[in-house]
Amino acid sequence: MMSTSWVASANGHSDFPLQNLPFGVFRRAGSAEAPRVGVAIGDDVLDVAACLAAGLLDDAAVEAQRGARACASPSLNALMALGSTVRRALRDALMALLSSDVAEHKRLVEQHALVAQREAEMFLPVQVGDYTDFYASVHHATNVGSMFRPDNPLLPNYKWVPIGYHGRASSIVVSDTPVARPNGQRKGPDDAAPTFGASRLLDYELELGAFVGTGNPLGSTIPLSEVENHLWGLCLLNDWSARDIQSWEYQPLGPFLAKNFASTISPWVVTLEALEPFRAPLAARADGDPAPLPYLTHESDQTRGGFSLTLEVWLETSRMRAAGEAPVRISRGSSLDLYWSFGQMLAHHASNGCNMRSGDLLGSGTISGASKDSRGCLLELTWRGAEPITLPNGEQRKFLEDGDTLSMTAYAEREGAVRIGFGWCRGTIAVPSVSSAS
Question: Does one domain contain both 159 and 77?
Fold first, then answer.
């Protein structure tokens, strides 16, 4: 029989059952409390440091208590730096505390350490020192490449090496942070010269992010056989993109202002332990594709380096909001469509001696599938604006407009396992004020 929790809301169709327990950073909304680490359980947040202070973890393993002490911090970095053994021990202790099997703890936990999510203010869960975004979906790379190079959409190195670029960590924001439309240089194919102004082709990118737990010293590597000891957990990631700025500036060195104005992540980080029932083999490579080089090949990664997650994108326009209309799903895809695994991304990143650090973020790049409804950005869904999507209320979208709210979610489910989810990764394109618009 599958374990349940005495937190009733965790036992229904919740993203956060007992089997998930993702970590985030919160405080009571409207309070002057210091932000600290919590764990999502149903509709509530469990305050880990408060559990420790109330003596609720006195019987837990020493490693679990070590992890709980790190949860008084305003980010997950201190906990991440303690490694996978501490993470597992703390998670086991919190599961025992919240399990129906030990309901005698219910009164003490409710009194000292349980906060309703609706009463919590969420913060960026990790202070990200470095952020690298990859290009790991072959369907996305093929679609985008075919728009510009119809006869040769994939560049020669794509199937040999995980392609990535160094993103901007300072502009990573937590879900529900408004996103300002960026300015930059734009030049259309028939324009004599570029102009500077607000992006007209603002887009989202549906991604997963993976956090590094423990890093490696400068000059050393992280072999693919050891990546499980270094990866900590996954989150949702929206790498907002200004396509008109991007198309002009990306040559010859790649993305710059088109990407560094904002990247939104979900507030909860789902651990590798919660994802264990949903591990999967990597997608089979097409006939004729080269085998990865030896440093990017390991049996454990081939057989369980993937995650079977369903990812969805939902859009709500300002007109829909005013009319009380529900958001509409515009895309649904699968993380199994990634060509490169997070393990391969991390192993490649460190293969030249690059020192990875606790809290570093690796983005998957846009996740797209083979079908049109699984494309992970508007650039693909509308084919550069040539095929606008029509919403149920008659509105059309080529790219995002001011007032649009873009929401992403992900979940994992399979027979014999409890469904878990990631919550929401959401952002609204800010409507410019009169003064800024003028």
Answer: no
**The two structure tokens encoding residue 414:** 């399979």
Measured torsion, CA atoms of residues 406, 370, 132, 69, in degrees rounded to the nearest 10: 70
Contact 48, 40 (CB under 8 A): no
Q: Residue 348 catalytic? A: no
Q: How far apart are CA 134 and CA 407, in angstroms?
A: 21
The answer to whether the CB of 392 falls within 8 A of the CB of 402 is no
Same structural domain, 390 and 414:
yes
| Cβ atoms < 10 Å from Cβ of 193 | 6
pLDDT at residue 436, as a whole number = 52
Catalytic residue among 13, 105, 139, 140: 140
Quick one: average pLDDT of 161-189? 96
Instruction: Kindly indicate the confidence band of residue 438, based on its pLDDT and cuts at 50, 70 and 90.
Output: very low
Q: What's the DSSP call for residue 178?
A: -
When divided into structural domains, the chain yields a total of: 2
Q: Among 140, 138, 144, 143, which residue's Cα sits nearest to residue 158?
A: 138
Residues sharing a CB contact under 8 Å with residue 322, sequence separation 6 or more, in sequence order = none
HEC string of 23-84 equals EEEEEECCCCCCCEEEEEECCEEEEHHHHHHCCCCCCCCHHHHHHHHHCCCCCCHHHHHCCH
- Would you give the end-to-end CA distance of the chain in angstroms? 63
Last residue of some domain: 95, 123, 151?
Answer: 123
For CA atoms 377, 378, 384, 387, the dihedral sign is positive
**Do the domain assignments include residue 1?**
no
Q: At how many degrees (to 10) do helices 62-70 and 84-98 cross?
A: 90
Q: Is the pTM here over 0.90, yes or no?
A: yes
Give the dihedral sign, CA 8/90/27/104.
Answer: positive
**Last residue in a domain, options 101, 123, 145:** 123
Note down the domain range covering 36: 8-123
pLDDT at 207 exceeding the cut of 90: yes
* 15-48 residue pLDDT tens: 999 999 999 999 999 999 999 999 999 999 999 9
- DSSP codes of every residue in 330-341: EEEEEGGGBSS-
> Residues 158, 116: one domain?
no
Chain segment 320-373, per-residue pLDDT in tens: 999 999 999 999 999 999 999 999 999 999 999 999 999 999 999 999 999 999
Task: Kindly list the distances between the CA atom of residue 152 and the CA atoms of 52, 81, 142, 200, 366, in Å, as whole numbers in the listed order.
Answer: 58, 43, 9, 28, 20
